[in-house]
Amino acid sequence: MPSTHHYKGDAPPEHLNLARYCLAKSAQQFPEKIGLIAATDPLGSDSDGCWTFAELEKIVLTGARGLLERGINPGDRLLIRLDNTADYAFLFLAATAAGIIPIPSSAQLTAGEIAYIVNKAGPCAIAVDSGLAMPDLDVSVKILTIDDVAEILTTGLCGTYANTHNNDAAYLIYTSGTSGHPKGVLHAHRAVWGRRPMYQGWYGITSEDILLHAGAFNWTYTLGTGLFDPWANGATTIVYTGKRSPTVWPQLISTHDATIFAAVPGVYRQILKYNMNFSDSVSTLRHGLVAGEPLPRSVADDWERQTGTILYEALGMSEISTYISSSPATGIKPGSPGKAQTGRSIAIIPEAGKPEPLPANSTGLIGVHRSDPALMLEYWSEKGEFEKSLRGDWFCGGDLGQIDEDGYFWFCGRNDDIMNAQGYRVSPLEVEQALMQHCAVAEAAVAEIKVREDLSIIVGFVVAEENQAVSSNELKDFLREHLADYKCPKQILTISSLPRSSNGKLIRRQLATLFSQEPHS
Question: Rounded to two decimals, what is the model's pTM?
Answer without folding.
Answer: 0.86
